[in-house]
Amino acid sequence: MQKKRIVLNYPSRLVDQPVISKLVKDYDLIVNIMRARITPKEEGRLVLELTGKRAGMEAGFKYLSEIGVKVQPLAQDVKWHEDRCTHCTACISVCPTKALDVERTNMEVSFKRDKCIACELCIPVCPYQAMEILF
Length: 135
Ligand code: SF4
Ligand code: SF4
Prior knowledge:
Blueprint: E1 2-10, H1 19-27, E2 30-38, E3 44-52, H2 54-67, E4 70-73, E5 78-80, E6 100-103, E7 108-111, H3 122-125, E8 131-133
Antiparallel strand pairs: 1-3, 1-4, 2-3, 5-8, 6-7
The chain binds iron/sulfur cluster (2 copies).
């Protein structure tokens, strides 16, 4: 079994299509929708966690590409601007996954992209705009 966190970008013509149920039924994937947004131009953006067998995952991505859905890894859409971070630790207690964590010996904050679920809880608490989520 594989697990992947991805962002889907839908053109407006697909927003009301049963794309997700097809991933579940035809490709045997477990879909956890983490975030969903429709832009003013009515394009759709979904952040998903997909779980399934490698073959189902590959076939599901092929299907998405064929119908015109752009797929990218979630990691590309979350940025930690290390140069702006003052290691103040204000974000540490709000991050639910420990993607932002502090090394207690030297109080240095680090960001582990693969743990981030793009919940945005760190955005309002960071005084230096060091976290950015590109949705
Ligand atoms: S977006 Fe959420 S999970 Fe990601 S670093 Fe910020 S608080 Fe943590
Ligand atoms: S709140 Fe912002 S500046 Fe403070 S440790 Fe977190 S990312 Fe760095």
